[in-house]
Amino acid sequence: MQPVAIAPCPDESELLTHLRQQSTPQVMRGLVAQWPVVKAAGQSNEALVDYLARFDNRTVVDSLHLDARYDGRMFYNEQMDGFNFSRKRQPFITALHTLLERQHSPDADSLYVGSTSVAQCLPGFLTENPIALDDAEPLATLWIGNKSRIAAHYDAPDNLICVTAGKRKVTLFPPEQVENLYVGPLHITPAGQAVSLVDFHKPDFEKFPRFSQALEHAQTVELLPGDALFIPSMWWHHIEGQQSMNMLVNFWWRDAPAHLGRSENALYHALLALKSLPDKERQAWQSMFNFYVFGQDQNRFDHIPDALKGPLGEQSEQTQRQFRAWLANHLKQ
């Protein structure tokens, strides 16, 4: 396991350009240290809650509740037919005050509010705590709680996480390590994305022997208030909140056009259509995918007239619509 590379904080006007040039994780110490929310958290947990309360929109949020015996690990139950935590809808400000009530108890149950839209929950917060990513039109979400361990998972968008309170430990793996992470079900997941089934605090190398290979490629970092971490698209990341009040704000964005849709859907459909074919047919389809989808020769379709290339040419929104309609008709057959 290696430390994540530390990069100098770029000038504000160059931040997005810098991030778009990165293909591996990078830590930027103190990138958002001047945010008022970071300064409030530096005073006390109470000062942080008071600061957030200024923006509170009486929003009701999803909160996760976990018994203390699980040591913050939000995961499946033992039968893997459900989860070891419960979900509750409650006002955001109520969740914050619950965290304050538990802050001095080392054995407190875990409470976690995650993936909550900053714009909806705390309107005006981003005006006081800005970051120069507007051209990417990112989705900003907040994550706050006491002790938590979120299983390794990936996100399709690029991701910049900014720690505003507490301490976060992040362990990252490149996309090609998926086969060594022992990923669980695709359709029954704790929070929408498939997760590694390995307990990072006490990995069972007899049950998950290839995880030792994943660790050889892992990168890790501890983030303090004001620090930021860039997580490129598709990198697996395991995140731990280590103090009584941990908060981060993250920014997700994709540079691909929105009309391309969710890449995961192509994977899910391929599983249905190809996974159970005889091996020789699957190998043939692998060759087809390598040529049509993953081929690097930009001129491999030049023999087809531009007007007839369809999705093999430039994929405008109109081209996408036309080919989706064609595909829909084929799926009916």
Please give a structural write-up.
The chain is α+β, with helices and mostly antiparallel strands. The chain has two domains: 2-253, Sandwich (Jelly Rolls), CATH 2.60.120; 261-331, no CATH class. It has ten helices and 14 strands. An eight-stranded antiparallel sheet has the order 2-12-9-14-7-6-3-5. The chain has a six-stranded mixed sheet with strand order 1-11-10-13-8-4. The termini are far apart. The mean pLDDT is 94.
What is the CATH top level name of the largest domain? Mainly Beta
- Overall structural domain count: 2
> What percent of residues are in strands?
15-25%
The biggest beta sheet is recorded as:
8 strands, antiparallel
Uncertain ranges? none
The number of helical segments is 10
Number of E-state strands: 14
Structural class: alpha+beta
* Strand order of the biggest β-sheet: 2-12-9-14-7-6-3-5
- The gyration radius over C-alpha positions equals 22 Å
CATH architecture of the largest domain: Sandwich
